[in-house]
Amino acid sequence: MPGPLKHCFFLVSFLCTFFWAQGEAEWTQWRGPKGDGHAPEGSYPIRWGEHQNITWRTFLVPGKGHSSPVVQNGKIWLTSAVETPATEEEKAARVKQSKFPGAAGLHYLSKVAFFAIQLDLSNGEILKEVKVFEERNPQAIHRLNSYASPSPLLVKGKLFVHFGTFGTACLDAETGHLIWKNQDSNLRIHHENGPGSTPICWDGLLIFHLDGTDKQSVVALNQQTGRLIWQTPRSGKLKDNPQTKKAYATPVIAETEKGPVLISNGADWVYGYDPKSGKELWKINYGILGFSNVSKPILHQDLFIISTGFMKGELHAYQLKGLNRPELVWKLSKGAPKKPSPILVDGFVYVINDGGILTVVRARDGDLVWRERLQGEYSASPTYAGGHIYFSNQSGMTTVIKPGNQLEIVEQNQLRTGHMASFTPIPKGLLVRTNETLYRIE
Fold first, then answer.
1. CATH 3.10.450.50 is held by the domain 1-56+342-442
2. CA end-to-end span of the chain, whole Å?
3. I need a labelling partner for 198 at 20 to 30 A (CA). Which of 80, 159, 293, 300 fits?
4. What's the rounded mean pLDDT across residues 187-191?
């Protein structure tokens, strides 16, 4: 790392640690400050239950959402969707109109309202409920998904909320007042299973994926105005079946010696883009069928690691070569996740797949260290905090392990309802959003 960049990195790390030590909660995007699931250094709870180590709980019914909370300046923000179910007659008519063979098994609404909710970090009190959008007869979604699955972001006093095809908006993070919204018809796609991709912020841009069964592209909006800056269609050839064209992943930006690269995995292909212009730099085919990707890529030195998604998922590690086409270094063909993101700790990649198989490989070469099964099914991405890794299943059980050369379970903690959302660390605590409740655990 060049000298000035190295000093800048250590300054940012010092400031983050300083503010965390002062008790200022700053978790402004899904998977944390660096987007890797790592909490700042500190002490975090490893044991809890419905009647143990719960500082407060706030019931979020009637809204529903799988998005993870973000925190800044003593305020929590999360997104939620208030659903008005379709009648049996409405559902039957829409199933009949659909060309999707599994249409009868989807979740249909007569109306949905999209909300941004602000809570007080100290006591869990709901301070604001801001209705951002409303849609009648919205697209049906998968029963495991929600209409508010993409997580919000906080940047310089602004809150960005994104609901996929239904729209994107910017609010004042303190007052909740709407600054702008974008529901451009050119950004409408057919998700089939509902929205899932969380945006990222970079150099004044809000960047996100729109990978539907009909159209696939990557989009950048101006953070100040919501105006479209660039939209780049996916160029990789896909299978004919529309169901294999969709994806729900979140991109990541790698800083290389020749400039930044937006690493973006969609159906069947992983792409590299210039984040400033949206220009495609390269693309690589997975070599297998890969779609409905959800997990976020992770970075390790000059490697980036991705999951190919459904059907038979694999984990692929590529070596970055500046702005040129990367090279496949290793792949894991067994135990790769469809939904949870991998997490990197001390040079090792920990991967929990949807069925609970936890695999640990060496990041540099993909060599297997160990593989064990955890209880339950998994969607939430793991969190590393206070020297432990937290894995939460869909039934509300969190298994806390100590990283190492073998499985060492420290605690298993059960809450009343399950969740898809990932943890939000705060000083000496965790925020956990379940299907009905937001908990502050300490």
1. no
2. 37
3. 300
4. 97
